[in-house]
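Why do we care about 3D structure at all? Because function follows from shape, and shape follows, mostly, from sequence. That is the central idea of this module. The next example makes it concrete: a single protein chain, its amino acid sequence, and then its structure expressed as tokens.
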Amino acid sequence: MTYLLGVDTGGTYTDAVILEEKTDQVIASAKSLTTRPDLALGVGRAIDAAILEAGIKPADIAMLSLSTTLVTNALVEGQGGRVALIFIGFDEPELSRAGLTEAMKGDPAVLISGGHNHGGAEAAPLDKATLEAEVRRLSPEVTGFAVAASFATRNPAHENAARDLIRDLTHRPVTCSHELSAGLNGPRRALTAVLNARLIGMIDRLISACEAHMESLGIKAPLMVVRGDGALVSATLARERPIETILSGPAASIAGASWLTGERDALVSDIGGTTTDVCLLKDGKPAIDPMGARVGSFRTMVEAVAMRTTGLGGDSEVHLIDGLETGLRLGPRRLMPVALAARDFPELVHQALDQWLTFDTPGEHDGRFALPMWHGGPPPGLSPREQTVAGRLLAGPQRLSDAARTRLEIPALMKLVSRGAVMISGVTPSDASHVLGRLDSWDAAAAEKAVTLFARRRNGRGDRIARTAPDLAARIVAQLEQQTMDCLLEAAFDEDAYDWGQETSERLARHPLTQAGLAQHQGIVRTSLSLGVPVIGLGASAPNYYAPLGARLGTRMILPVHAGVANAIGAVVGQVSMSATGIVTAPGPGIFAAHLSDGPKRFPSQEAALEALETALRAEASERAGAAGVEEIRLTAERDITQVEVEGQPMFIEARLRITAQGRPRIAVG
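And the structure:
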């Protein structure tokens, strides 16, 4: 028998599923808490439990495929390592474009002279002396470098030279923008490279955790990783390009939803601990976002499923909206539920909660804890105030008010949170579910205390925001359901072909007519509104929150068996798909330039340039697919030729060529 093992590592849980390849049946599934900073523990426990349930030998595993939401979560929450951007041939105003300044979050950016023009010719020599001096200066402060040069997709010579110099001097990871996208938008390429560089350490730790456990069990099968468009890639490539695993978990969930339900057309909503991901399944396949993956406020140049990702999950932070009648809002930041923190640190959590509950009105930070998430000590490049806060956490988790003792130290603590070095614990929907008896995974008594304390907060009139813990818990769950409905409606309005004019999907989802239609209002004006496709609910907590939404949206709510491990299922039912792209331009009359990986080459005819480019791209795509373990490679070519008519004759402008190599990954044979 041949068995395939799928693993999905999310913000809260790591799932494992075993499929028997011949019968295409799930024979075992298991869950384990994701363990940060040491991911190997959670990964290992999930794999071990699934193998034990299946009753098979580890050596019988023929392939292990991994999907993850860690990268998506990190971008939504603004986490990742400290990086330096080497910005070659650009002016300083370019740093403010495409959200690049926001993405840098105060990390250093160095402007270096150099770069090329649109034809691939050198615009200015690369300033290697300044580059070397800046790299030496910044190396101790950063975990990696991102390199973006002007028109690098037309000629990558300066990016390659900078990469080689940085690696020789620092031995740190370097990401070149042209390796991630063939697009011309320099700031957006730089943004994508920065995010990639920031995520390398995170994905490397996850893959290393999988590889170490595979080795300990004697699993000699290939390790694959799900990319954001649902295709499988080798672990080696995923290490180099973690940005391509944006929406890896959601992409896997779409494949899992289709496999589990057989539905061809549906909205798929996958709720995790940190995010809710909504995508339209049409004719059995998800659409690919032509503009590049968008996660949170970032629009990257990475191909991925057209997914709407919102910072809303079972572990979302609960915010108060101040006013005479205090409202609630969830997310986008993930907190560790108090119930989970109490399971791991019962003495700290219960003693603090009991003390806080002796007071009638809670303090600003009562009910919150700070937990260090680092492995081997705090990250480098901390400010003095951040070092002070981190130093207190060397002793372990503490009350938030003990970790940050002044108002000036709160931003320092939040900076550590943004870098993934520290996690805050506080009240979440998961705690509310424990209070209501919908969930019993962790410490329900601690959840009851924490929600009781939160309910004592005051509104604008000075009244408590809720009478009892169950009252507040019910409001928190109702708020999660309402925000989930908003996510589904926004996605539906976005995907519908009707011309909604200037209205955005966000406004349409919350419009009074939409709400009246959902309520089937029948007065002088009669209204009716419903979704035209069913909703497939995925995620471990989907049964807790999604069951009533179908009736409220006027459609079927499908909660399939194995919905809680759909991502892990999707991880092993995909194919490898590797693409290589290139462009041919016409820099002058009768001259055609094929922009190859080693720079542009000129040809006397359009067809000769296209043939040379296609030959190079076929070799590149095939090599990458072969490295990913594909033996039977299928190649497809797409040409997009742009021409204009001049005096009745077609005039060539440019041509884009894309070669895709596909196939099932090689599996181990015992």
